[in-house]
Amino acid sequence: MQINVLRELRQAIGAVSVVDFDEETVRFDDLELNRVGGSVSMLRTDRGLLVTLSVEANARERCSRCLKEIETPIEITFEEEYVPVVDANTGAPVRSALLPDTFRIGPDFVLDLHEGVRQYILMSEPAKPLCRTDCKGLCPNCGTDLNQGACRCAVDGDDRWQALAGLKTENEGS
Ligand SMILES: [Zn+2]
Ligand SMILES: [Zn+2]
Fold first, then answer.
1. Minimum-distance ligand to the CA of 147?
2. Residues less than 5 Å from ion ligand 1, measured at CB
């Protein structure tokens, strides 16, 4: 997810370049992506490059209920302008690159898509991933994975739950 864009930055405004990429694993502090593939289109603007990214990958995370490791297919698409901190033709510093919330291209002219991808994943990802929609989770009492079968706590609690369920049905009927 790092592309040298010196050539792209030296092109005339309006020029478009497309780069495909394919990476086995991309790691972030708090997230890992596997089988990352997609393409980046770069349009030369007056300030820098308008980057349109489209990526598919498998995110490795943990089920929020039973903590099992799962892989969730995700798609990331975004469009952001990246501004070089140094002018690619003159080597002069570019002031507008220092504005807050600007994605920057460093003095080495390497377009690093990591941070942008990370931000978009955090925005699009479900807050509570599940291994399957009906995951039963772990018993809060003894920690047993309830997908593998009931624990003893459930047996003890059963009568009370059934009594409650019975009450509820009666109320609904009246
Ligand atoms: Zn689960
Ligand atoms: Zn239990």
1. 1
2. 63, 65-66, 131, 135
Distance from the CA of 162 to the center of ligand 1, in angstroms? 25
State pLDDT tens for residues 54-75: 999 998 888 999 999 998 888 9
147 C-alpha vs ligand 2 centroid, how far in Å? 12
166 three-class SS:
helix
Q: Residue 111 class from Cβ within 10 Å (0-12 exposed, 13-18 middle, 19+ buried)? A: buried
pLDDT given for residue 33 in this prediction = 92
CA distances from 107 to 6, 25, 72, 118 (A): 10, 26, 36, 22
* Cα–ligand 2 centroid distance for 132 (angstroms): 20
Residue whose token pair is 């995110």: 59
Q: 31 or 133: which carries more pLDDT confidence?
A: 133
Which ranges of the chain does DSSP label H, i.e. alpha helix?
6-9, 114-124, 152-173
Q: Give the three-state DSSP class for 37.
A: strand
Q: pTM value? A: 0.73
Q: How far is the CA of 105 from the centre of ligand 2 (A)?
A: 53
Residue 62's closest CA among 135, 115, 124, 117?
A: 135
Q: How far is the CA of 64 from the centre of ligand 2 (A)?
A: 18
